[in-house]
Each structure stands twice: as structure tokens, then as C-alpha cells.
Amino acid sequence: MISKYYCAKCKKFSNQFIRQSEYKGTNAKCVTNLCEFCKEQKLGIITKYLQVKTSEGKAIEKGGEILQNERNFSFHPKIRYDMDKNVFYVWIAVFAESNFKKDNVRGLESAKIHYYIFHSSDVAKFDDTSLATYQITDNQKTTLRINLAGEILNKGKKYSYDCFKEFHNNFALLESLHN
User: Fold this and answer.
1) How do residues 61-120 score in pLDDT, each as one tens digit?
2) The dihedral of CA 146, 150, 156, 159: what is its sign?
């Protein structure tokens, strides 16, 4: 969950204005609920809910050889519907070396990490949520074949995975006032 203060007058995110006041002969800081820019508007709070899923990726074998620059990543969030304007998914693909172990911090530091950030309503761009059997268990998952550059290599029969280009490292979405 991410909560940030927002000033409706300035139309931007803001920190709380900290007023300097003298109290009992010393300079004291007083935190207010006012915008740090206009110093007059009461701040609102915007909260965004994130469902974060991480996948380390499985090696792909082709012709008896392990592909070095491609992996299969599985993501299976518990909730896969358009839940609310403030519900987002953050899918993290960790492209680590093939001998990577979870307790190996060095291996993680050298890993290539891709973030796919999108609104919960965007699931319908790449998955058929109208199926009668859709999401009746926690086992509904999407497997994406991703290369080292973070490109999705899947070719869908019904849906296109091109939307993942806009999701890739889309941190700006979390800073926006998505409606």
C-alpha cells in the first residue's frame, strides 16, 4: 500500500508544511496538514493498493541447449479483476544467473530486474476474464516468456501481449492520479 498527500488546489502531490515556531524560548517544528507549496490548502490522502508478485524465471531448453537470454516467468496474483481505481499490480521478473539461489545476495545484486506495473483493469488486455472458470482458484496464472531486455516474447492467439511494453518499468503510473 502506498499513501501520499495530495493538494487539490495545486493539483500535485505534496509533503506536509512544516512551520517553524518558537515554543518556550526554543525554535520548534510544527507539522501541519497543509500543502508545502501553497501553505493554505488542507491535504487529502490518496492511497494505492499494490499486489506485488515476483518470479525468478525458469530456464528454457531448446534443442538440448539452455537459452541464456530468455526465461519463462509465471505470475499468479490472488485477485485478477478490475477491483478499484486504486488497485495496481507490480509484477517483478528477476533475471538472475542460472545458478542463482535465494540466499545468495551477490547473485541478486547482479540480476537484471524488470518491473511490469499496471492497473487492475488492464488484466483484460491480455487475459479472458469472462470465462466461467476464470479465477475460481488461486492457480490461475500467466506465464510470460521474457528476454533479457524485458521484452515479452509470447504471441497470443486471442490477445496481444504488446500492452506489456507500456507496463514495463512504468513507475509513473504509481505517481499519477489514475481514474
Assistant:
1) 999 999 989 999 988 766 666 677 888 999 999 987 655 455 555 566 778 999 999 998
2) positive
Q: 136 to each of 1, 39, 127, 131, 139, how far by Cα in Å?
A: 25, 50, 15, 10, 8
C-alpha distances (whole Å) from 12 to each of 35, 45, 48, 106 are 10, 12, 16, 39
When pLDDT is cut at 50, 70 and 90, the band that residue 22 belongs to is confident
pLDDT in the model for residue 23: 80
CA–CA gap between residue 164 and residue 149 (Å, rounded): 13
* CA dist list (Å): 74 to 53, 105, 162: 9, 22, 17
